[in-house]
């Protein structure tokens, strides 16, 4: 197994149009911040980055906008030649999954690399407080 010195981790957050705009509105940002900057402000991404950096992993954060998150994840994975995926699950009812689909299900059926699915609250205890998040230039 590779050591953390030999591996880097790409943290990806996929925004749909509504979440992209609501993130900008909620953070009261003027202008047009990059998707990468917005992704860095998401609590799950911040928590994952803090945990990985604590374990001495090099991390890169990327944000993408897509209404098809599963396809966006696989496209990004292929672009960066990743060797495995770690994704978190959202709590959704069976009806919600049937109506809205499941990105994780899409990934499980279509990915060419191993996938680890984590529970949605797996990193909750590591979530940094909002004051420690990086500032986005306005």
TrEMBL record:
Q: Which InterPro entries match?
A: Rossmann-like_a/b/a_fold, UspA
Task: Tell me which Pfam families the record gives.
Answer: Usp
State the source organism's domain of life.
Answer: Archaea
Sorted alphabetically, which Gene3D superfamilies does this protein's record hold? HUPs
Domain UspA, first and last residues per copy? 8-119
**SUPFAM superfamilies found in the cross-reference section:** Adenine nucleotide alpha hydrolases-like
Q: What is this protein called?
A: Universal stress protein uspa-like protein
């Amino acid at each position: 197994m590779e050591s953390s010195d030999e591996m880097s981790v790409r943290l990806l957050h996929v925004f749909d149009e509504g979440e992209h705009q609501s993130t900008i509105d909620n953070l009261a940002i003027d202008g047009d911040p990059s998707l990468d900057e917005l992704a860095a402000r998401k609590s799950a991404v911040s928590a994952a980055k803090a945990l990985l950096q604590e374990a001495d992993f090099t991390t890169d954060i990327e944000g993408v906008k897509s209404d098809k998150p599963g396809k966006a994840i696989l496209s990004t994975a292929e672009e960066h030649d990743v060797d495995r995926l770690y994704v978190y699950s959202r709590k959704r009812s069976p009806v919600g999954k049937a109506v809205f689909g499941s990105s994780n299900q899409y990934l499980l059926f279509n990915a060419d690399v191993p996938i680890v699915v984590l529970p949605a609250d797996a990193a909750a205890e590591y979530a940094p407080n909002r004051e420690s998040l990086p500032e986005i230039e306005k």
